[in-house]
Write a structure and sequence with these properties.
Helix content is 35%, strand content 13%. With 341 residues, the chain is of the alpha/beta class. The protein has a single domain, classed as Metal-dependent hydrolases (TIM Barrel). The longest helix has 16 residues.
């Protein structure tokens, strides 16, 4: 039994009913005038349009700020200002109408910096900030930041030398996550591996009312050991039973022998496994811009997931590109072209 079969067996879910097949699209043309009275013409199908896009995972930073930034470092290819106007220019030709900023700094003060950037750019519908549950300042900072409707939650995982599995067992951590849930805010993960998936599952069991968003799951490296693979699959399946858990199909593109792999068939099996486990109501789009520039351009990243979603049908496309983000983050439109949940 190969690893793919083991994962499918461990998850033990059927794909039936998960996603609709892509529907055929056709144009209709007007008929020529009839020479005699004709029966009432059949109604024509409206043309299907691509859904508006809410990008649930971008980063903002500015290395020209006094004091610099903690990430990215100066030797990084993306070390240049990543600000709202640059993102807006980049996505202007796409169907992207809004974005959620995910923190790229461990500094509490940078929550305010991101909110300041977002204030004058209604393309930004919210931000996922940085606070440390269990810390002395958590409750005070949470109360302060939640007063801003653009503050949607916090991120915690394999980032900034943090360890959710260990940290969630420290004094006050789970109590603070309950405060987060009571405030109607969400918890994002960061850079998943099998250990983090297990830790997220344990947190979700302790705080079942908390909305959790797991980022970058397509980039997770599967265990080689068959028993570890089965355990990972079982944990993922258990996690999917909590209907407040969402998954980002982010960090999807990869390079093969130095070139971007653009063939959908290369990715389809992996994406299908995630789709089968979590279903079309719990999967979101996130570009990971500008971190994604390390691998692929924004247009290539978007084109790849659009081609995959085209196989799922227009209802699933709409859910993936914006409807599910409303359920996961509870964001509100800030400009007319942003859809209402």
């Amino acid at each position: 039994m190969d690893r793919r079969q083991v994962l499918k067996l461990g998850v033990g879910l059927a794909a039936a009913g998960v996603g609709a097949n892509a529907q055929s699209r056709r144009d209709t043309s007007a008929s020529k005038p009839a020479s005699k009275p004709a029966s009432k013409p059949a109604p024509t199908k409206p043309l299907l349009r691509k859904p508006p896009i809410i990008d649930t995972h971008i980063h903002l930073f500015d290395p020209t700020r006094p004091g610099g930034i903690p990430w990215p470092t100066k030797d990084d290819a993306i070390y240049q200002p990543a600000l709202p106007h640059r993102y807006e220019q980049l996505t202007r030709s796409q169907a992207v109408v809004g974005a959620i900023v995910v923190e790229a700094s461990p500094l509490e003060s940078d929550n305010d910096w991101v909110l300041q950037q977002a204030a004058s750019h209604p393309t930004i519908v919210g931000m996922v900030g940085n606070l440390v549950p269990g810390s002395a300042s958590f409750g005070r900072q949470l109360d302060r930041l939640r007063a801003n409707p653009l503050f949607l939650g916090i991120r915690y995982g394999n980032l900034w030398d943090r360890d959710l599995a260990a940290d969630s067992k420290t004094s006050g951590f789970i109590a603070d996550l309950r405060k987060l849930a009571s405030a109607g805010l969400s918890l994002d993960s960061a850079n998943p591996d099998p250990k983090l998936i297990r830790a997220i599952l344990e947190v979700s069991q302790q705080v079942p009312e908390l909305r959790i968003v797991v980022d970058h799951l397509p980039a997770l490296t599967l265990p080689i050991d068959s028993n570890a693979l089965k355990q990972y699959a079982a944990n993922l399946h258990s996690l999917s039973q909590n209907r407040r858990v969402y998954i980002k199909l982010s960090q999807v593109p990869v390079r093969v022998e130095g070139a971007i792999q653009q063939d959908l068939a290369y990715y389809k099996d992996k994406l299908d496994r995630i789709w089968e486990v979590f279903g079309e109501d719990h999967i979101l789009f996130g570009s990971d811009w500008p971190n994604s520039d390390h691998v692929a351009s924004y247009s290539d990243t978007l084109r790849l997931v659009q081609s995959y979603l085209a196989t799922k049908g227009p209802v699933a496309e709409e859910k993936y590109f914006w409807r599910n983000s409303v359920a996961a983050y509870r964001w509100h439109p800030r400009k007319p072209d942003q859809p209402k949940g």
